[in-house]
Amino acid sequence: KQEVTQIPAALSVPEGENLVLNCSFTDSAIYNLQWFRQDPGKGLTSLLLIQSSQREQTSGRLNASLDKSSGRSTLYIAASQPGDSATYLCAVNTGFQKLVFGTGTRLLVSP
Amino acid sequence: DTEVTQTPKHLVMGMTNKKSLKCEQHMGHRAMYWYKQKAKKPPELMFVYSYEKLSINESVPSRFSPECPNSSLLNLHLHALQPEDSALYLCASSQVGSGTDTQYFGPGTRLTVL
């Protein structure tokens, strides 16, 4: 059974810092991996999707990497801003359209 | 337009009530999903519809009954729920098997069962 873990569970940083969120999964047989953000009480916003054959994806200040063989992905956020405060979730697609979500990282960026 | 809409935003119901949640997308996606999310937990998959047919049911109790009347609409019918069913119910949609099947989520329905 696929298990997805995110470290740290919570992170607090001052504005302007670069930061890295980690995601690990137990079964490397994945179709793709997706990073989402979720604001309190809201739905999920898709940030980046990395196909299993890819190593990296970038969107603006966000960069996600994937090392499928070691079961790891990272989300790098450059020059963090207070508006980046949210919960960040990674999710692996195990095939057949099934997403298994990680435990999430709650990020707080202070002005 | 990458919008998935859900109604209602909030729902309070008693254990004997029957209610329905509605989800709609106009992105031409042929896969639609229901997820349940408890407070401070990640979303958990409940159902998947592909081409308007139920393809995955994650052993969800029968008091939850999904319906996909057409390619743009997804309903979740609720009956005889328990207080522990209180949660945020999220709908999502995606392409089917395109290799870039990003799932797009709606804002959710906050359900409270009294």
Brief rundown of the structure:
The complex is a heterodimer of chains A (111) and B (114). Chain A has 111 residues and is an all-beta fold.
How does this model look, in words?
- The complex is a heterodimer of chains A (111) and B (114).
- With 111 residues, chain A is mainly β.
- Chain A has no helices and 11 strands.
- In chain A, strands 2, 4, 5, 9, 10 and 11 form a 6-stranded mixed β-sheet that branches. In chain A, strands 1-3-8-7-6 form a 5-stranded antiparallel β-sheet, with no helix packed on it.
- The radius of gyration of chain A is 13 Å and the shape is globular.
- The mean pLDDT of chain A is 94.
- Chain B is mostly beta strands and 114 residues long.
- In chain B, the strands form 2 sheets. In chain B, strands 2, 4, 5, 6, 9, 10 and 11 form a 7-stranded mixed β-sheet that branches.
- The N and C termini of chain B lie far apart (36 Å).
- The model of chain B has no long low-confidence stretch (mean pLDDT 92).
- The A-B interface holds A 31-32, 34, 36, 41-46, 49, 51, 89, 91, 93, 96-99, 101-104 and B 4, 6, 31, 33, 42-45, 48, 50, 55-56, 88, 90, 92, 94, 96, 99-108, 110.
Q: Which short descriptors sum up this protein?
A:
heterodimer, A: 111 residues, mainly beta, six-stranded mixed β-sheet, globular, B: 114 residues
Which helices and strands occur, and which strands form pairs?
The complex is a heterodimer of chains A (111) and B (114).
Chain A: E1 4-7, E2 10-14, E3 19-25, E4 32-38, E5 44-51, E6 56-59, E7 62-67, E8 72-77, E9 86-93, E10 99-101, E11 105-110
Parallel strand pairs in A: 2-11
Antiparallel strand pairs in A: 1-3, 3-8, 4-5, 4-9, 6-7, 7-8, 9-10, 9-11
Chain B: E1 4-7, E2 10-13, E3 18-25, E4 31-37, E5 44-50, E6 53-57, E7 64-70, E8 73-79, E9 87-94, E10 104-105, E11 109-113
Parallel strand pairs in B: 2-11
Antiparallel strand pairs in B: 1-3, 3-8, 4-5, 4-9, 5-6, 7-8, 9-10, 9-11
